[in-house]
Please model this.
Amino acid sequence: VISDLLEEVSDVVLKIDLYRYDQRHEVASYNTSLTVSPSEGNLVATLNLLQDLDIDNLCKEEEYDQKDVCFIVSHLTTVTDGSPAAPDNFLLLGKPKNGYIPHATVM
Model:
């Protein structure tokens, strides 16, 4: 999937927005965003680095109940026009604490 995405967006700069979701499939908060250019670096390596983020620390917030599913997905959009880089382009970056994986939809 990532390789297909790379072929489709090999010449554009991507803005990766990270969102936190709870078990009710709601966006709980906006974390951060970063911009990567496949032509200037390895996008796969960048995504691998994102997967190594300290998910547990990012999920330690007062408003979260310990039973809540807390994970991060990335929404890839092109910087040029803000359109989706690819359909269904959400990547699961964090593992839910209880193994339950909610359905993520393109926003």
The chain is about 20% helix and 25% strand.
